[in-house]
Write a structure and sequence with these properties.
Among the domains are: about 40 residues; about 130 residues, Bacterial extracellular solute-binding protein, family 7 (D-Maltodextrin-Binding Protein, domain 2, 3-Layer(aba) Sandwich), CATH 3.40.190.170. Helix content is about 45%, strand content about 15%. It is built from 14 helices and eleven strands. The chain starts with a helix and ends in a 19-residue tail after the last helix.
């Protein structure tokens, strides 16, 4: 084929595809068509570019790898939406404190937020069951099954709507790990240790194990460890924690048995949540676009974090940080401590109970089998 003929055919194909996408948007077609067009490498465009701008704060501190991923995604939205939507990203604490993001998004001080879902536990008990909790569902696939196969997404959106919020979707991150000044080789070694935790059920689990727990945002972990205010801290994965410099103040990392990096948060989910009034101003095609973007970003974010984590392990080794692992026996002991806490938090309100019941049935099913009837004997859902 001659060069000019090939160019003409390629140009005609591009025009046809762009016209197909515009037509699909005008007709308000479903997410599958929009996702397919996006995979072709074209921007999602609408006939009317409203130029809406959202102020979005995330839970990542400025400069760390997590924030770089988030900012890159946010910066791409204006082009990918054909100019109809712009996201102005902010790092942790830039507009409001990390734990104030929920209220700020409800009030409109922020248009949207990207945080760790568990941070809402103090105001919305159900959020304990919207991200991984101690010895609950243990893999990314299980949580995707909950949200996209077992009705979790619809229930979560219903719950958030009562708060004046729209839960767009979960964002996969990866397991959390524990950095410690002393080696932790069994559940008994947590006794008496001053430990930073994210709150909620995780805090209660380690309190039950004998630790003295405290709640701190991620940005305050390093100075607290350096001053000796805490002996150990859970936070996200190895790559981000290396950037925070935790290897300088804690020479041990504690994880579960091989294959279980974290017993308490093996799948530390984030999310994108939007003020409901702000969400309702979007056109239907743009709502579909944002939902698809979050689903796409979840996969990209997870993969990027895992790659960075793998790259960080040699750095820890070079810094003289040692890894200690708990045993299968410790897993059994932690499970016995965790199960009563599951029911305690599930019985805080009706929404928490119905979400937990879906997950409990899944964990007791032939697919997983983590939990057997004798393990929950005497426990009841009362709400």
């Amino acid at each position: 084929m001659k060069k000019d003929e090939k160019t003409a055919k390629t140009g005609q194909s591009a025009v046809n595809r762009r016209n197909l996408i515009k037509g699909a948007l005008a007709a308000g077609v479903g997410a599958a068509t929009l996702a397919a067009s996006d995979n072709l490498g074209f921007n999602i465009r609408t006939a009317k570019a409203a130029g809406t701008t959202w102020r979005i704060q995330c839970a990542w501190a400025a400069g760390v790898f997590g924030y770089k991923i988030f900012k890159k995604w946010a910066d791409e939205i204006v082009e990918r939406s054909g100019g109809e939507l712009t996201w102005t990203p902010f790092p942790a604490d830039a507009v409001v404190g990390t734990f104030q993001m929920l209220d700020a998004t409800k009030s409109g001080a922020l248009d949207a937020m990207n945080w760790f879902t568990l941070y809402g536990a103090g105001k919305l008990p159900v959020t304990v069951f919207l991200s991984s909790y101690p010895l609950g569902p243990r893999t990314e696939g299980e949580w995707d099954a909950f949200y996209y196969g077992l009705g979790g997404l619809e229930i979560t959106r219903e719950i958030y709507a009562k708060q004046g919020l729209y839960y767009v979707g979960p964002i996969q991150h990866g397991p959390n790990i524990i950095h410690s000044k002393v080696p932790i080789r069994s559940i008994d070694d947590f006794k008496g240790r001053k430990m930073r935790v994210p709150g909620g059920m995780v805090a209660e689990l380690y309190t039950a194990a004998g630790a003295k727990t405290t709640l701190l945002p991620g940005s305050e972990i390093f100075p607290a460890m350096e001053k000796g205010t805490i002996d150990m801290a859970d936070y996200v994965g190895p790559a981000i924690n290396y950037e925070f410099g935790l290897y300088q103040v804690a020479k041990y990392i504690t994880m579960g048995p091989p294959g279980q990096m974290s017993l308490y948060q093996p799948v530390d989910l984030m999310d994108l949540t939007v003020n409901m009034a702000v969400w309702n101003k979007l056109s239907k095609p743009m709502k579909i676009f944002v939902e698809d973007e979050v689903h796409r970003y979840s996969h990209l974010h997870f993969a990027a974090i895992q790659k960075a984590d793998q790259d960080s392990w040699p750095l820890y080794e070079k810094a003289g940080v040692r890894i200690t692992r708990l045993s299968a026996d410790d897993v059994d002991k932690f499970t016995k401590l965790a199960i009563p806490l599951w029911y305690k938090w599930a019985n805080k309100d009706h929404d928490a109970a119905r979400v937990f019941k879906i997950q409990l049935d899944y964990m007791m099913s032939g697919s997983l089998g983590y939990i057997t009837p004798d393990m929950i004997k005497g426990e009841k859902l009362t709400t």
